[in-house]
Amino acid sequence: MRGIQVRRFGAPDVLEVVELPDPVPGPGQAVIEVAYADVIFLETRIRHDGAFFAPPLPYVPGGAVGGRIGPLGEGVDAAWQGRQVVAKTVPPAGSATGGGYAQRALAETGAASVVPHGLDLREATALVHDGPTAVRLFDNAVSTGALRPGAWVLVLAAAGGLGALLVQLAKAAGAHVVATARGERKLKLAREELGADAVVDYTRHDWTDQVRRTVGEPGVHVVFDGVGGAIGHAAFELTARGARFSAHGAASGGFTELDATAAAERGVTLAGIDQVQFSAAEAKPLLDRALLEAAAGRLRPVIGQTFALEDAAKAHAAIEARDALGKTLLTVG
Ligand SMILES: NC(=O)c1ccc[n+]([C@@H]2O[C@H](COP(=O)([O-])OP(=O)(O)OC[C@H]3O[C@@H](n4cnc5c(N)ncnc54)[C@H](OP(=O)(O)O)[C@@H]3O)[C@@H](O)[C@H]2O)c1
Predict the structure, then answer these.
(1) Which terminal Cβ of the chain has fewer Cβ within 10 Å, N or C?
(2) Ligand 1 pocket test: which of 41, 169, 246 has the largest number of ligand atoms within 8 Å of its C-beta?
């Protein structure tokens, strides 16, 4: 089968098209005949220099796919055969990660979700990573009482795959949303398609003043920080007493590391990346919820661009250049 392999870390062109052996499903697993593979920001960082955790080389990137179930492993009910599903991938034998950028991938059937009626496979695939993450971040903010009707929610990187879902979930809960992103194309998406109440370009030197003028005193009640670094630190200064600050993103190079004492003085609850580090089995109920919300028309993944499997390098280059809008997928023939 055709797939994409990384033999050394580096620029997007290290994503090479190669012939790979078909994956063999283990007990409880199935082969998915891949139609779409998800591409996430983290995969660009890992490919670049092995950031966060360096997988042994070579490896096939890709942690989430959509397609039809093919050959089944031992103990899997034959009813799975031919079903249209989306799932996080199980790395193929000998690999520590990935497996999704290929014509066939492995998944645990227990963690695979059947695509509900009313949702196409492409949109469902776009939700495999971003859906559970968005739902968990949203639930956590609601459960602390910070995200409630009338609250102000600040979404950083609002036009990315995850940010686009967070804007919609917060709006649907009756909150007011300030969406931040870089450039008019992304701000237009947030304002006109996602329903943000206000949009601010956070590459402007006065962006925090703009947010403050919009939300007034006492400040924002929730920050969803998908960017990190200096932008995240500046956003912390906008928080109201009792706010929740979710520092789950590192798109600018590193997570926002905030001073716990300063946060405690303001009664701000800090939450980090650990709140969304879950196994495929833990993610499944959250994914199913996101899929049902999307099938009912209440949540819409924004798929800004798709690339052929062979053009995986172009997909990574677009994300790194910040040209990508919403979610990026690979189409696999
Ligand atoms: N998706 C998930 O399930 C998940 C799970 C855990 C953590 N996260 C983290 O959450 C963040 C957002 O994830 P995502 O999936 O929404 O990613 P994405 O779709 O690739 O969006 C990333 C966003 O980051 C912004 N950005 C800011 N500085 C950037 C830079 N130097 N290079 C590239 N992009 C930059 C870009 O928007 P602008 O150009 O508008 O700034 C872009 O829209 C990432 O840090 C990711 O690692 C995501």
Answers:
(1) C
(2) 41
